[in-house]
Specification:
The complex is a heterodimer of chains A (about 220) and B (about 350). With about 220 residues, chain A is α/β, with parallel strands linked by helices. Chain A has nine helices and four strands; from the N terminus they run H-H-H-H-E-H-E-H-E-H-E-H-H. With about 350 residues, chain B is of the alpha/beta class. The chains are: A alpha/beta (about 220), B alpha/beta (about 350). Chains A and B meet through helix 4, helix 7 and helix 8 of A and strand 3, helix 9, helix 11 and helix 15 of B.
């Protein structure tokens, strides 16, 4: 197979939600000499981009997206250790994305998709999981102070969204607000809300989130 | 035109019969901190004790002025009934489901043969009984429960969204199971005095899963609940979160009498997208009802009324810190609206 054929195959396994196929294609690509960065940037990410576009166009829905994300994760499991070796410590890539779901909320579909998309777009990821108290978030930011940090919080419920305001306040009180860019997402989150609580950005969906995140970190 | 009791007025409004004016109600959760302080019935106790639950529901009528009483205030009692791990609520926050108990068809079998007599769903029924005894002649008594699709997601976890794609037999079996439960639970609420049923099925959104999956995994199951309720002359309101604009016709095809839409939906478009279902909504619970003044609430209410809404109401559950005067402004706007 030519390099382009290998990349196309990677892309197609993502688009076709072929979880096992995606892991296999990733291993084959590595064996044939492609770097992890090439595999992600020229194979898998274009696949996720197509998936994102199809979702925006209402051609596919959450079930298919979650399968594609699972395929992506299967590939990333293989690639992450390789990536660490390729990159070395000095390279920050797009930045460090600390992702989490607000305290009181355990809806992690959006969170998982966004985390996957950010990882696919060159962010190093610290995934704090669901139901994360603001104290923990602040602590994680403090521990990484000095790096290019993007904080990415999600909340599906109106009630947990309210905690996002406290997140920003707590970071300000701890003198950490200028150390991070902050994105919040989730069904109830609006531009107006982002403005009101002094965060930096929100996005329409996971594909959009990756675009917004890259712009924000420029 | 004749004067109606609030109970008659809502029943007529939901079933397309003429009324003197719009009823002032909320089909989504009504509990707020103001009402808790006025009634002495606070979350989380008001989620677990029938007397307190009824007292807080009653505050929606006595403190705010809603022309109905409605229980419960959350949508976790059903998953809790089947043993899902629950993160307890606080004074300001509702409990949430954090653990899941069904991962395959064999698991479903283990849960069959349950009795409805235990758990918090019994508390809800007792609260309905208290409210019906006190207000049943005058006010609508609304019972609310989670819908079968979202209950399936609570039982199965977020993998549920993939299960309907990868394992149809399991997906349909779980929908049968949750629907049988919902029908039995709804009937029990009605036996205890509920006269209006609200199905809250937040994740059963055609926007999330697409029309094909919605038609297969949601419509027939909502229809079963609706049929059971209509046999008892109980109208059904369906609330689904998000931008449901394109899914409204499908939602209506299950036979529901009214559809509650959230603030992402344009009401005029929604009214045009249904045949006869009453559109309920859709003031933004955060950016309008909680964070604005009564004047702004009135302005926004007027827009929704002008767009042709069937029942003016919050677009989703009321935020617990919402000021009473804002809710009263909405109530006043509804009451002074003639169709």
């Amino acid at each position: 197979m030519s390099k382009q054929e290998i990349l196309d195959k990677l892309r197609d396994t993502i688009v076709n939600q072929n979880i096992n196929g995606c892991a296999e294609a990733t291993q084959e690509a590595l064996d044939s000499g492609l770097t992890a960065v090439e595999i992600i940037n020229a194979g898998l990410s274009p696949g996720m981009k197509i998936v994102g576009d199809k979702f925006e166009a209402a051609e596919i829905y959450l079930p298919q997206i979650m399968m594609s994300a699972k395929a992506m994760n299967a590939a990333m499991e293989i690639l992450l250790p390789v990536l660490e070796e390729e990159k070395g410590e000095a390279d920050e890539g797009a930045g460090l994305a600390i992702t989490y779901v607000q305290e009181g909320d355990i809806h992690d579909i959006g969170h998982r998709l966004v985390t996957t998309m950010l990882g696919a777009n060159g962010f190093k990821i610290v995934d704090m999981g669901v139901d994360v108290p603001n104290e923990k978030v602040t602590e994680e930011v403090a521990n990484n102070k000095g790096k290019k940090i993007l904080l990415v919080g999600s909340a599906l419920m109106t009630t947990s969204m309210l905690g996002q305001k406290d997140t920003v306040e707590m970071l300000s009180e701890e003198g950490l607000r200028d150390s991070v860019k902050i994105m919040f997402g989730g069904a109830p989150v609006s531009e107006k809300w982002i403005e009101e609580i002094g965060a930096d950005a929100t996005a329409e969906n996971a594909a959009d989130a990756a675009r917004v995140a890259l712009n924000l970190m420029k | 035109m004749a004067e109606y009791t609030p109970k008659e007025r809502l029943a007529r409004a939901l079933t397309g019969q003429p009324v003197d004016r719009m009823p002032a109600i909320s089909v989504t959760q009504t509990g707020t901190v103001d009402q808790m302080e006025a009634s002495g019935a606070f979350w989380p106790e008001a989620n677990e004790d029938a007397e307190k639950m009824a007292a807080l529901a009653e505050a929606g009528h006595n403190v705010v002025g809603f022309e109905a009483v409605r229980v419960p205030f959350d949508i976790t009692a059903e998953a809790e009934f089947f043993g899902c791990e629950i993160k307890p609520g606080t004074r300001e926050q509702q409990p949430s489901v954090i653990g899941h108990v069904i991962s395959n068809t064999e698991d479903i079998e283990k849960f069959k043969g349950y009795s409805l007599d235990h758990g918090r769903i019994g508390v809800v029924c007792d609260a309905i009984r208290i409210l019906a005894d006190k207000y049943g002649d005058e006010l609508p008594v609304m019972g609310s429960m989670i819908g079968p699709f979202s209950l399936a997601q609570h039982l199965n976890g977020d993998d549920w969204f993939m299960a309907i794609f990868t394992d149809e037999a399991f997906g349909l079996a779980l929908m049968e199971f949750t629907t049988d439960f919902c029908v039995a639970y709804a009937k029990k609420m009605v036996e205890n005095g509920a006269d209006t049923m609200v199905i809250i099925d937040p994740t059963a959104s055609a926007q999330l899963i697409g029309a094909e999956f919605y038609e297969k995994f949601v419509v027939p199951y909502h229809a079963k609940i609706v049929d059971a309720m209509h046999e008892a002359d109980v109208p059904v309101v369906l609330h689904i979160c998000g931008d449901t604009t394109k899914g409204l016709a499908l939602m209506e095809s299950s036979g529901v009498d009214a559809i509650s839409v959230d603030q992402n939906v344009d009401v005029a478009t929604a009214v045009g997208n249904v045949d006869k279902a009453v559109i309920v909504g859709n003031l933004d619970p955060v950016n309008v009802l909680w964070n604005q003044t009564p004047e702004v609430v009135k302005e926004e209410s007027q827009k929704v009324l002008d767009a042709g809404v069937g029942l003016l109401a919050p677009g989703c559950g009321i935020v617990s810190k919402t000021p009473t005067e804002n809710l009263q402004a909405m109530v006043e706007m509804a009451k002074s609206h003639k169709y």
